[in-house]
Amino acid sequence: MPKVLGGSLEAHRREVRARVFEVLRAQLYERGFDAITLAGVAAEAGLGRTALYNHFPDKESLLVAFVEDEAARYVDRLRAAVEAETDPIAQLATFVRLQLRVLAEHHLPPGGALESALAPAAYRRISAHADPITGQLRAVLLAGVDAGSWPAQDVDVVVPMITAALGTRQVIDVPAERLAGVIEAAVRFVLQAVGSSELPDPRPI
């Protein structure tokens, strides 16, 4: 019988997932999704292939589980950061900064490449995690209208435009020393796009 990590089956499951996700995160950065194999992930995580297959039957299911885990933690982080601000302008600036910082830190394939790598059902599962994020953006935009921070606007049009602008890696594929300045330029762009006449002071995220 395989060794149970952590003293219980549930703790074992969490430990296996944590190990595997840590390895997958590094391999996505170093090699890209296409070059990753379950056998390679298992070996680097110190697991037998059979043990890994018991949790993730194929590479696609592993990627979906990884993205779901990352997304859930990110949504909590985003909500806490935005809600720590009381002014809608600062909230929108925080949203933009965090979206771009996380995009710069993570190395999943961009949307189009990810869509082509996964079956439609799996891609829809991953895409569904954008809903809480766009919901947060929608709430910030509506709060800004109520507060008079920017003019009334059709958020059904504005939200996808902002998320599209913040979702392209071209924005943050710059030398590390330029990243902070690029992010602040994006903050100014988004605030001006929604009609804000005020710009918050730059702050780290």
What does the model show?
This protein has helices at 9-30, 38-45, 49-55, 59-83, 88-105, 111-117, 120-127, 130-147, 155-166, 176-194. The radius of gyration is 20 Å and the shape is elongated. With 205 residues, the chain is mainly alpha-helical. The protein is 70% helix and 0% strand.
Q: Give start-end ranges of low-pLDDT stretches.
A: none
Question: Structural class, from secondary structure content?
Answer: mainly alpha
CATH topology label of the largest domain: Tetracycline Repressor, domain 2
Major β-sheet profile: none
Total domain count: 2
N-end to C-end Cα span = 46 Å
CATH class of the largest domain: Mainly Alpha
Q: Find the count of extended strands (DSSP E, 2+ residues).
A: 0
Radius of gyration: 20 Å
User: What is the 3D form?
Assistant: elongated
Enumerate how many helices there are, as a single number. 10
Q: Determine the CATH superfamily of the largest domain.
A: Tetracycline Repressor, domain 2
Pfam families: TetR_N
Domain HTH tetR-type: 14-74
Protein name: TetR/AcrR family transcriptional regulator
Keywords: DNA-binding, Transcription, Transcription regulation
Write a brief structural summary.
The chain is an all-alpha fold and 205 residues long. Helices cover 70% and strands 0% of the residues. The model has no long low-confidence stretch (mean pLDDT 84).
